[in-house]
Amino acid sequence: MDEVIFLEVLEGDSVQARHRLERFPVNVGRGYGNDVILDDPKVSAEHLRIERREDGTLVLRDVGSQNGTYRVEPWAQLAELELVTDTRVSVGDTVLRFRARGHPVEKTVVAAAPTAPRPRVFEQPRYFSLALQALLGASLLEGYLANYGRTDWGELTVALVVPLGITFLWAGGWSVASRIARRQFHYRTHATVAALVLLGSVVIQPLLTLVGFSLGVSGNLAWAHHVAFLSLMAWGLYWHLRYVTRWEPGRLIRVIAVVTLSFGALSRADEWLGNESFSTELGFRRSLLPPAFRLVGTEPMDDFFSDAVKVQEQVDALARDP
Amino acid sequence: MFAFILAAVLTQSPVAPAEPSPPPAPGTPKAAPAVPLSTLPPATHELFQRIEGQVAQVRIIERRSGTRSSIGSAFFVSAAGHAVTNYHVISDVVIHPEDYTAELVLKGGAEPVPVRLVDVDVVHDLAIIQTATPVQSFFDLDDREPPQGARLFAMGNPRDLGTTIVEGTYNGFIHDALYERLHFSGAINPGMSGGPTLTGEGLVVGVNVATMGNQVGFLVPVKHARALLVRALEAKDSGAQALLATVRAQLLDNQQRVTERLLGAPVPQQTLGSYRVPGRWGTFLKCWGDTPHDPEVPYTVTNYQCSSEEDIFVSSRHRTGVVAFLHQHATSQKLGALRFSALYSALFSQDPDAVEATRQDVTNYRCQSEFVDVAGLPVRAALCMRAYRKFPGLYDLVLRAATLNASTSGVDTSLTLAGFTADNGRKLARRYLEGLSWTK
Prior knowledge:
The structure holds two protein chains of two kinds. By secondary structure, chain A is of the alpha+beta class. In chain A, about 45% of the residues lie in helices and about 15% in strands. Chain A contains six helices and twelve strands. In chain A, strands 2-1-11-10-7-8 form a six-stranded antiparallel β-sheet, with no helix packed on it. Chain A has a five-stranded mixed β-sheet with strand order 4-3-5-6-9, with no helix packed on it. Chain A is elongated, with a radius of gyration of 34 Å. In chain B, about 20% of the residues lie in helices and about 40% in strands. In chain B, strands 16-17-20-24-23-22-21 form a seven-stranded antiparallel β-sheet, with helices on both faces. Chain B has a six-stranded antiparallel β-barrel with strand order 8-9-10-13-12-11. In chain B, strands 2-3-4-7-6-5 form a six-stranded antiparallel barrel. The radius of gyration of chain B is 25 Å and the shape is elongated. Strand 12 (about 300) of chain A pairs parallel with strand 21 (about 365-375) of chain B.
């Protein structure tokens, strides 16, 4: 073994502390008289000693510890052990590893983006305030337009407070995840993303209503609503997870695509399998907008009532089904 | 909105079992001696004694439990054991012949005798059943209308209490009814369905069919029972399939009659704001209207609705033969165009009361909706249909339409037609939609 070796205190697979050993003998234990101090209650005050023999080999010797010293592979209690590189030894609840200076390390990982780091949009403070303002504005407008009764100030206040509260709670959850995984909260960034996702969910319905009415779509656009919701969910997940995991964007996108598509498929599985439950509901688009929003022309009554034959065919087909 | 008054159907099903009264405790004195016969109105007890044996209780037996699932009344009309009852009493036997049978409990409480279902008249809610053995006495179905105010006696088995006679007065035909009914002012109760209502001489005037409570009862005129009996007497053996076909043919005939009646008359115009809408299209329609006045809301909505307020009983959870429509005129001086459209969308989202039906009776609705040009008036219209499963060729149809010519006023309208052919439904819906116009 080399002249200089390293004693590494392990925690799981990672190294918690690393000590460079140059002068021998080295005493290891819990007491302050040692060269290497281990804060492990099951380690004796004077636990073991590492000595250099005359032929240069390093020898680890238990100096009468209470709980003993163990070789890890194969597991055996020891009184004396010749150290080679990568030897692991267990004392109390602590695992020690010895490595020589010449121990080989793995190749440097090549970085994916060898460009200068650029500030991300969602990290900038002004985007946070812009997103929040847009969300509150949209929510307030929606609350005002959807209420055709007397102006209800309480309801308008709720339209402001609820999205605000959801944004902050939501961002809180994600920042805790960021903190755990990446040791940084990224609170503002998560709040920006949350505000944008909420803005999207507030805007989807009116947008679809506008498209459906203007173009005179006959169906209820449930599929469009579903697709829009899934895309919004995928987008939000992507940006939140960018600040939680260290995955490459490509991998993240693949994972989110799989998650989103399976979620979307499962939530619509019942319909796709043709399991329509009995209902007396009339399924057509109910949302009406002012006449000025209509872009398509009207059709003559003859066409409307001759098209009704198709409806008759549809229900006849249903009636034939058992 | 007014409360929709539905005549309760008079079969008794086990919804609210009456508390059985405890037997009299031993030691309580015997009931007071019978009232001297001379104090009763003349002849009622004699009438009762004379005809009691001609009225029987109908029991519908569910095969798996082997016990009755509902009860009604019936009365004999031929020596061969033919008896008249209501269609709604024995509808389970028609619709689910594999699950239900019928039997009669005759006077004296002997073993119930099984009966065969011979023929039905679903539109007038009548049916003819027949026992295997002949009977000694039966009613003659004489068609003579008594004068209004005549004293009548309804018979039947109310709430399974045994054969009962109830006094009341005759009040003539119901005016402007889609399905002919007589008005009997007397207490008719569940279980008396299918029993006869008689004059003091024992002539049948009608068949007990429904009540609105508070002594307002309804009878089917006896002429329909006689017509059905004539048909039943010459009928060959009728299987379950043939009965369903009969019901279907009767429903088809009835909808044709109603369609011709409606198409034969021009659609009257009713003014609502600056719009004209279909008014009381037939005399059988009852129309009601109201404008809720609430100074707090920045808009007004005026309702105008018409309905036949009658339907045909097909089974306990399936009705048909309904014509009903509702207009809602919304207008506002205070709301902007977008907020008005939110109100208008909310009105357009409210569907009229659904005609009762279950998964076994009808399919789900299918709809198409378009912008339609109604003589220059742009309208968002939706036409929805559902098909009857047991009676192919019959449909329920709902037409919904909302005018789109002004940004802060409009009429939202809906038409419900239950039990029509697709062609007749479309013709009626088209005529109805053509009745919509703008007057400025």
